[in-house]
Design a protein that fits this description.
This protein has twelve helices and 14 strands. By secondary structure, the chain is an alpha+beta fold. Strands 1, 2, 3, 4, 5, 6, 7, 8, 9, 10, 11, 12, 13 and 14 form a 14-stranded mixed β-sheet that branches. α6 packs across α11 and α9 runs antiparallel to α10. The chain is globular.
């Protein structure tokens, strides 16, 4: 049997086929959550994704006897490399059948592509920025995935380790049980923080007004708050505009918590949303003909799980209890709406400051994912 690897042209037709392979491989798997096909295609398309202004990427497909058997995208983020002083490539959008010959051919091709461009190291799975999916699942294969994370079969990390890849960092995830009422200690801390720093919580009912008032500031805050986190690539002005258009129109505004100071300057933001897991599974990653209806129903109707998408606080306000304000605001809304659980999504395993905020809640650490690395 013969294995070949070919570069994928960055056309809508070819990239759609590439993305669908990563969905079809998990047909019948109850834990896999497909991405929206058009979203991944746009991410991989120069001219659509503004990250291509400072990044180079090439997608590859592996074939076993002429049939698709694997995929991988090699990425060089030159903006991040300038920031870190490293010559580092990334791999992402990776999937393959349980065949070591296929996975080896895929990774050797991506590694050679990076090596030819002067890279000395490769890490992944990661995307162009933190707004893309990252981290290979290494624990929690029988836990339901989320729209913000990657699901992969248990054999994936075994294949990588056999090819000489080692751990670079891990992220952990928690499933939080929403209590019947806001914990008294958290409520007390939140009220002290509001008064001490003259802060207030702002809510919006208009996406347009939210975007006009705080859209750009929100993503600049993320840049400041996440600047020192593992692999963080600062968002450019064009990326900020891109993500404002992409995400702010999709949020449930009740579940967005904005914290400002006495001069209405943005101090922190907490963004959560009803889980899209089951809706995406029903849609198969397609908006049409009925995918949009499942997604809208999940957003508007009864949903007993929320995804905690991100929390960002200005560096000068970190470690001052501002995080408690988001749950002070949001927890009562979750209780009102019958939410039973919250998914934290990715947190760096050494980020004890973030993990300490869950001490007020019943919780379990149910997934772990890893960034692997290899010298080239």
């Amino acid at each position: 049997m013969n294995v070949t690897v070919s570069p994928i042209p960055a056309t809508k037709k070819e990239l759609t086929r590439y993305v669908k392979f990563g969905i079809d491989l998990y047909k019948g798997n109850p834990y896999f959550v497909p991405p929206l096909i058009f979203d991944d295609v746009n991410t991989l398309t120069p001219g659509k994704n503004p990250a291509f202004e400072f990044s180079e990427a090439q997608s590859f497909m592996a074939y076993r006897d002429g049939k698709p058997a694997g995929r991988i995208t090699a990425i060089i983020n030159r903006l991040l490399n300038e920031k870190t002083g490293r010559q580092e490539a990334r791999f992402g959008f990776v999937d393959f059948i349980d065949d070591p010959e296929v996975s080896r051919a895929l990774f050797e091709t991506a590694e050679q592509w990076a090596r030819e461009r002067g890279m000395k190291r490769i890490i992944g799975p990661m995307g162009f920025s933190d707004m893309d999916h990252e981290g290979m699942l290494v624990e929690g294969f029988e836990e339901m995935g989320t729209m913000a994370t990657i699901y992969n079969y248990p054999y994936y990390p075994k294949h990588l380790e056999a090819m000489g890849y080692t751990k670079d960092t891990d992220w952990v995830e928690y499933r939080i049980t929403i209590p019947d009422k806001l914990p008294e200690k958290m409520e007390r801390i939140a009220e002290i923080v509001l008064k001490k720093y003259q802060l207030r919580i702002v809510k919006y009912t208009s996406r347009k007004k939210l975007a006009e008032k705080y859209g750009e500031d929100l993503f600049r805050l993320i840049n400041d708050a996440y600047a020192d986190l593992y692999g963080y690539s600062p968002l450019t002005d064009k990326q900020i505009d891109y993500y404002i258009d992409m995400y702010l129109g999709f949020l449930k505004l009740d579940y967005v918590s904005i914290v400002v100071d006495s001069a209405d300057r943005l101090v922190g933001v907490g963004i959560s949303m009803p889980s899209m897991t089951k809706a995406l599974q029903k849609s198969g990653g397609k908006l049409f003909p009925t995918g949009w209806w499942h997604l809208l129903r999940a957003m508007k109707g009864h949903n007993d799980v929320v995804d905690l998408m991100l929390i960002a606080v200005k560096p000068e306000y970190q470690s001052k209890g501002v995080n408690s304000l988001f749950f002070y605001d949001l927890c009562n809304l979750y209780i009102r709406d019958g939410v039973k659980f919250a998914e934290t999504n990715l947190e760096l395993e050494e980020n004890t400051h973030v993990q300490s905020q869950w001490e007020y809640f019943e919780r379990r650490q149910h997934r772990r994912r890893r960034a692997f690395t290899k010298d080239l």
